[in-house]
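Table S2 (continued). Query chain:
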Amino acid sequence: MTDGAGTTTTGPDLAEALLLDRAECERLVGIAYRRFGIRRDDAEELLAETLLELSASGALVHSPKGFAFRVFYVRCCRWLEREGRRAETPVGLDPAGGDRVSLPGSDPGLALAVRQAFAKLSATCRRLLKGYYVEGLSLRETAETTGHSSKQVWKRLNSCLKKLKECLEG
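Corresponding output:
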């Protein structure tokens, strides 16, 4: 499965392409093990559930590899919650710091730079990025919480990511 950025595909087509791409499947299973500590057999089961979810989805996907990763990642997070285990928080909120961003296991200088860049963003950008990337809300759910359309939220998320990148680079 190639990245396919710039092409549009449907959920069932994406599921089929992912099923045929053994290297991508192995990469996802490896991420589940390394990132979450999920055993291989459980990770393969989560991947199968992800394929079923993708094949049932009628959504048009613009970045197939990224979308498949996100669906699998959220499924892993939910599995950990169900199992009553806590994974090391990915780029996420510092429970004590409100808008602070934490990067567990990272260089303290990098974590500080990300916190400072995140603080420079508007409240709207912070809310969108937290909802979509940290809390794992779907695009539709994020749109509902902000009162905008999914298309507007998608455009704003991309704009906010560009602003965050500029803040980190500058």
